[in-house]
Design a protein that fits this description.
The protein is of the alpha/beta class. The protein is elongated. The strands form 2 sheets. Strands 7, 8, 9, 10, 11, 12, 13, 14, 15, 16 and 17 form an 11-stranded mixed β-sheet that branches. A 6-stranded parallel β-sheet has the order 3-2-1-4-5-6, with helices on both faces. It has 3 domains: about 160 residues, Rossmann fold, CATH 3.40.50.720; about 160 residues, Dihydrodipicolinate Reductase, domain 2 (2-Layer Sandwich), CATH 3.30.360.10; about 90 residues, Alpha-Beta Plaits (2-Layer Sandwich).
Length: about 450
């Protein structure tokens, strides 16, 4: 059978990895797919570099639309990134009747509803395993492997840059700014790391997992997003003393009132496997009613790990290329024409309506009665205190210090209630600095 022909838009880190792995493992991939898969055309602005990677047998152009116009191309791989030209090219590829493979989580998290609808109407597939957690096959697990389950929650370390920074802060006792500079020097963080350290990248990925897990539209604009820039070495140290580690998690949960979709730092019990995921590695936990808790671990970025996911999508499309569109695996796991309207209309809860537990760190004056006033305000709001840790003043600020740290762990309470309590605590004259609040997830 004639090999299926693929056009590649963008041959940077992931694109070159995809070309090299596909070429290196071509016989094994052909045996699995049932026919050959060949990248026969590449579009990249740097044509000289592209030719050096792919050699003389592949057509190289600097106009992506030349790939879309080629009638011999069956699948288009979009590795340009971003929301702008990438969106236009993906929609044009779909309109031309070509299947699409993309690693562009930002594009799908923001415009996925439009893109998937266009693909369904045209009878083509949009595959995006590489968009979430790099080489970890979490999309396939959620969409196919766990299809028997009513999924209850998903929680993941899905940004390697922030996990590397938090691991270094814990290991070396350094503050955020110092570790960020080191991460940039080593290449783990971009020159502009905003999307990573502010949680936006993780929120793009969590949005996609939420849609697949619960059968709801992609709704990135409703995600709660908080990064790691305000964390200090003291918080990492206190968490460790209390039996926890701090991780930036992307979390989505099904509740009776709606779906939670949030990204923020969390205290996670040190005994949980996910709490021990270090460096730039990724891990995702999924809780299903039948299977219980499952954990998926691996490299969340990099040339060949991400290429592994891109090629898995190429193989899936090759296998299903001639299958009736209604008999293919749906883009977001649930058949669009059978969706329960009550489920698709299930709201994404605002953060104020989320129930969780908390770690609070207050820098307070070292004087009598402060602890009683603080715990009294917390208790009067109906919030149950799990643990209190008060440091000696000289341990925090050195000999002769007049302030100290007060650490409080709470049981579950409504975020809106905690917001009101924090405002009241912050107004106390004996609270000397902005209060640090980190949510706590037991992940039972």
């Amino acid at each position: 059978m004639k090999p299926i022909q693929v056009g590649l838009l963008g041959i940077g880190t992931v694109g070159s990895g995809t070309f090299n792995v596909l070429k290196r493992n071509q016989q094994e991939i052909k045996r699995r797919a049932g026919r050959g898969i060949e990248i026969t055309m590449v579009a990249d602005l740097d044509m000289a570099r592209a030719r050096a990677i792919v050699g003389p047998d592949v057509t190289v152009v600097n106009d992506a639309r030349a790939v879309l116009a080629n009638p011999d191309i069956d699948i288009v791989i979009e590795l340009i990134g971003g929301y702008g030209i990438a969106k236009a090219l993906v929609l044009e590829a779909i309109a031309a009747g070509k299947h699409v493979v993309t690693a562009n989580k930002a594009l799908l998290a923001v415009h996925g509803t439009e893109i998937f609808a266009a693909a369904s109407a045209k009878g083509v597939m949009v595959a995006f395993e590489a968009a979430v957690a790099g080489g970890i096959p979490i999309i396939k697990a959620l969409r196919e492997g766990l299809t028997a389950n009513s999924i209850q929650w998903v929680a993941g370390i899905i940004n390697g840059t922030t996990n590397f920074i938090l691991s270094e802060m814990r290991d070396k006792g350094l503050d955020f700014d110092a570790v960020l500079k080191e991460a940039q020097r080593l290449g783990y963080a971009e020159a502009d790391p905003t999307f990573d350290i502010e949680g936006v990248d993780a929120a793009h990925k969590a949005t996609l997992m939420s849609a697949i897990a619960f059968g709801i539209p992609v709704q990135f604009d409703k995600a709660y997003i908080e990064g790691i820039t305000k964390l200090g070495a003291a918080d990492i140290r206190y968490a460790e003393q209390l039996g926890y580690r701090i991780k930036l998690l992307g979390i989505t949960k099904r509740t009776a009132r709606g779906v939670e979709l949030r990204v923020h730092p969390c205290l996670v019990p040190a005994k949980r496997l996910i709490a021990n995921v270090e460096g730039a590695m990724n891990a995702v936990m999924v809780q299903g009613d039948a299977v219980g808790t499952t954990l998926y671990y691996g490299k969340g970025a990099g040339s060949e790990p991400t290429a592994s996911a891109v090629i898995a999508d190429l193989v899936d499309i090759t296998r299903l290329h001639t299958v009736d569109p209604l008999n293919r695996v749906p883009h977001l796991a649930f058949q669009p024409h059978t969706l329960d309207q009550a489920m698709t209309d299930l709201p994404v809860l605002p953060m104020e309506e989320v129930v969780t537990s908390y770690y609070l760190r207050l820098r307070v004056a070292d004087e009598a009665g402060v602890l009683a006033r603080v715990t009294g305000i917390v208790a009067s709001a109906g919030i149950s205190i799990d643990a209190v840790l008060q440091r000696e003043a000289d341990e925090v600020g050195g000999e002769g210090a007049t302030s100290t740290d007060l650490i409080i762990l709470t049981h579950d309470t409504l975020e809106g209630t905690m917001n009101a309590v924090l405002a009241e605590l912050q107004a106390l004259p004996t609270v000397l600095a902005p209060i640090t609040r980190i949510r706590k997830e037991e992940l039972n």
